[in-house]
Every structure is written in C-alpha cells, then in structure tokens.
Amino acid sequence: MATLRTILRRLALLGVMLGGLVLITFTVSNVAPSDPAALAAGPDATRAMIETVRHEYGLDQSLPMQLARYVADLLRLRLGRSIQTGNQVADDLARFFPATMELVLLSMLFSVLAGVPMGLWAAVRRNSWFDHAMRALAVSGVALPAFWAALLLQLVFAVWLGWLPTSGQLSVATAPPDPITGMILLDALLRGQWAVFAEAARYAVLPAFVLALPSLAAIVRVNRAEMIEVLAADYVTAARAHGVAPRRVIGWLALRNAMLPTLAMIGLRFGWTLGSTVLVETVFDWPGIGLYAVNSAIASDFKPVMGVTLAVGVTFMLTNLLIDLAYGWLDPRTRSA
Amino acid sequence: MSGPLLEITGFRLAFDGYEGRAQVLNGIDLRVEQGETVGIVGETGCGKSVLARSILRLNPTPPARVLTGGIRFAGQDVLAMDGPALMALRGAGIGMVFQDPQTYLNPVFTIGSQLADVLRAHGLRGRAAIRARSLELLEAVRLPEPAALLRRYPHELSGGMRQRVLIAQALAGSPRLLLADEPTTALDVTIQGQVLALVADLVARFGLTLVLISHDLGVIGAICRRVVVMYAGSIVEDAPAEELFAHPRHPYTRGLLAAVPDLERPTQMPAGIPGSIPSLRDPPGGCRFHPRCDLTMDICRREAPRLSGTGHRTACHALAPNQDGYAQVRP
Ligand SMILES: Nc1ncnc2c1ncn2[C@@H]1O[C@H](COP(=O)(O)OP(=O)(O)O)[C@@H](O)[C@H]1O
Ligand SMILES: [Mg+2]
Predict the structure, then answer these.
(1) Which of A95, A289, A332, B172 would bridge with B153, disulfide CB 3.0–4.6 Å?
(2) Complex ipTM value
C-alpha cells in the first residue's frame, strides 16, 4: 500500500537525519573551547581531582571513542550524566520535556485556531479594515523580537495591570496535580482539579502568546494568500453556480484546499516554536528543556545540551512525519502518486 | 406561466481595471421561451462566458459592474435577488455546465461528496436519499459503475467522465434551464460528439430549455433550433437555425459561416473575415464590427445599429429596412 510505503520511506529518512543530528551535536560540543571537567570539579580543585572527574565522565578518551560510546548509550536511551544536576540527562529530559511540550502545543493550538479563521476572513473581506489589520499583524508578528514582546507584555499585564503572573508555571503554594502526562494544564483537566487548572492557565497565557505570535502571523499570512487564490478557482465558482451556500463554499470547500499549504507552514512553525522555547522559557522562567539547556550551556555542561538538541530534533522530525501523513489525507492527489 | 423563461433587456456590463474600463457586454437583448434550444456563438473574447455568468450573477463585483439593463428569470428580477433567492436560482432554476472539467471539479473531494453538497444545497437530506439520487444522476449522464464512481476523486477520471459529472451536478437541482458554456471545447474530439449527444438527450428527456454557448457554429447547429450570434459584446444576429444557416444576413455571420467548412484547421478565428476582434477597452465607435466589414457606410462609424426585426433579428445599418420595408443591401 502506498501509505505504508510512504511511512517506511519517511522513517528511513528520519534515521539518516537523526544520525546527522547526533554527529553534529557531538562535534559542536567537543570543539567548544572550555573544559567541562574543570568546571564540574569546582574552582578550588587540584589537577588530580580534575583528572579524576575527567576519567569518570569518559572525557579522557579519544573523540571517536567518545562518539562510539555516546551512540551506544543513545541506543539505550542513556544520554549521559548532567554535571549540573548530577542526574541522568534522560531523566532530566523526561522531567522538563512535558512543560515545554505544554507551552509549544498551547501556542500552536492558539496560532492555528486563531490564525486560520483570521486569514480566511481577511481573504473574504479583502481590502477591508480587518484585512489591513491582519497585514499589519503579519509584518509586526514576524519583525517583533520575542524577548522584546515578552518584556513588554510582562510589563503591561503583570506589572502595571497585575492581571497575570510574571513568570513560572504555578505559584509555590500550589501543588501540581499528580502527573499523568506531566503537562500541568492537561493533568489538572484530567484529574478535575479546576482551581489548579485556572491558575496554571493564568501562568501559561503570556509565554504561550509570545511563543505563538510569529506563528500566528505566518499562518494568517499563508492562509489569507491561499484563500484568495482558492476563492478565485473554477471549482469554487462551480460550487456557487450550483447553489451551494457561501458559508459552506468558503468555510469548507475552499478552506480544505487552502489548508494544504497552510498545513506545511504549520509543520515548519512547530519546529521553529520548539526552538524558540529556549528564549521564552528563560524570560518567563518556565521549567522546560529550553531553560534546562540554557542553564547547562552557561555551565559548559554539554551532555544536557546535546540531549535537548536531540529531543527537539526528534520531536521536529516526528511532527513533520505526522504533517506529511495529514497531507496525504487532505490531498488525494498525493496518495496515488 | 406566461412570458419568456429568460429575458435579458438592454444589459450592459463593464469590468473596471487599472487600465480603465472594459465595456464587455454592450446592450444585450435576448428572450428565451420555455422549451427553446438556443445557441450563442461568437469568437473567443466576445463576452459569451461573461454573459452566462451574468445570468447567475457569478461575475466578481468588483471588477464587474452592471451599467444598465435587467435580467429576469421566470418573471423574477435576477439582479434584485437576495441570498436565498439567488441560491435557489442557481441550480434549481438554472443548471450551469462549464467549459473545462479539469478545473471545475474540486480536487480534494470525492465525486460523491461533491454531488452530495449540491444535493444538500437543494434541500435533500439523509444519507440514503442522497446516495440514491446521486446514483440516479450519474446513471442519467450514462456514467458506468456509478456506485464505485462516488468514491473516486476527479483526478482519477477522464475528461469526458468529469464533464459528465459536471452535467450531473448541473442537473442535481432539477433546473428548468440548462446553461452550457462551451461544454465540449476542452474535450477530445472523439468525446465531443458523445457529450453533445448526451446534452441533447437530457434536454429532450427532462423537457429542459437549453442555452448552449460555443465559438463553434458546428456544435450549435447540431442541437440548437435557434442561433444567436455575438460580436464584441453585442448580439448582431438572432434567427432560427435553419434560416440562419441558409440565409445569413449580418456580414459577420456570413464570415463565420464561410469559416465553418474548414474543419481541419481548429482555428477560433473565422477565416472569412479579415482583421481581428477589437479591444473592448477601446472599441471602435459606432458599429463595433465596421472596421472589418465590407459594407461599411458613414453611419456605421457614427452610430451603433439596433437589433431589429421579428423572428430573424439583425443589428446592421446596411440591412436596416428602408421605407419600403426592404433591406438596402441584399446579401
Ligand atoms: N473577471 C474579469 N475581469 C476583467 N475582465 C474580464 C473578466 N472576465 C472576463 N473579462 C473580459 O471579458 C471579455 C470577454 O470574456 P469572455 O466572456 O470570457 O469571452 P468568451 O466569449 O470567450 O467566453 C474578455 O475581454 C475578458 O478579458
Ligand atoms: Mg468563454
């Protein structure tokens, strides 16, 4: 079957890309001009103590040897040990990853649910004030630096108006729900802890919005352009000529066609959003893998950085696989091809 | 019902663009009675499709703008219709068939889903009822294995099959008038005759009124009892088919007919007429045909001729009857 072959081919490709990713992260972290063993051993450590640490972490072996060990460990999901936290990187990732996914999913959900209808309406009401507003958003959403948007929003909504908390994921006084997925909002929802859910939602609004802004702008822009093109297509004229209601013509028959390029854009934005969490999590003190990566990088602790990069890379690749499959479902022409 | 099924009077429509206004329809007068089969013929670009779309109000506004005139269908003012009335006119009053079956079917939906959408638009409800009616329609346009076809996508069908699906869609609302805009032009020559025969057959079977548009007099002569000839946005001649083929009057029609025997050359320009069609943005004054006409008189440059006569109408100063009731020039 064509679909199964497509999946297998994509999975093979995914393996190759993964290999490349491992190689790159490993190389990059080894050419960085600092000595992690010296850092881990502390400022007062003697040369002998540093050498002990170096040996303990396998840093005294040759690079190819280190790489071989690294890959062998990866296959067993052992990503090495974090010098900073003293934990296995895999364990740290499992702890921090859900928070990042929560933020990413939230912001993607928002940018798709808002961006698609906004782009659609701008196309339908072309050259109206709404359309002009959407074009302004499309430009500013991309041009505005995320850290600047974050600081501005924190200042207005947290400091001046006091409506929302400045940073963090929950107040210290609130106990997070027992983990199911590890995502606080979802877990609170699943366990029916409404008060925790409401509080977590207030904490998530600003970081999710800042993270969503560029994607929102991109999705609005693409969906608007696609809708304009599709609305002028012959098959749309035909549906109108046959008496199909405008609402159905625009909101379903045309949108379904316009969604194909929009979907590709959504896939791209997902990867970009995942990468941007590094900055947003730092500004909002959000305990995800972005913050973990930054803290580790500052301490020249490279195993976690490599782990985070791998996790982000794998997630991005899997998402694109899903998008590809959705594409096949949405566009029958690619199915038999 | 008394009165014509479709009545277009003094209809003028323009497209406004950056380079100015294109006066595309320049005063169309046309009555179509219930049960008639009318062919509209004219060179590519003379405004046939714009006229067809005007009848269903499908021209995008802007840039399209109705300047004067009216369109009535079954006694109702089409230009004044609100949303629901317009949706009923489209499909249930008039079924439209388009030129290119490649682009007029939605590529991402199955045939069944697209037919169902049209049927639901005309009030049919329930999966079983919609399926039964869909099969009935696909059988009516003589498509084999209709049940399997419902699950197919447009790209899996041949051009001829797609055009049959489009015809089925046009029939889905049980219209009184079938408006077919070049339904065979985009098809293989071998398929053209079959689709044309199908249209003629459906018209007879369901007692439809037919308005068939084509740049090809041969196509129109095959199934229409009456022929309307358009030139650069105006009707220049309107006559029963036999009469028009035997005794064409307008110099343009005679040029068109002279081009017909030349079937080997699939040209869209009548070979019998020198020159080319005028720009609609800057058309010649007076009669728009006068630069290409061999009967041009002074008045032709100054004044646009009116479509006159009964039974056999022409718009030509050279043919206008004088006081004695005879045309000044006998072709
Ligand atoms: N949407 C539009 N905007 C501007 N001009 C148009 C539009 N649609 C048609 N026209 C113009 O109207 C004229 C007649 O076109 P059309 O009716 O398609 O000719 P045809 O007789 O070949 O069907 C052409 O000059 C075309 O450029
Ligand atoms: Mg045309």
Answers:
(1) A332
(2) 0.88
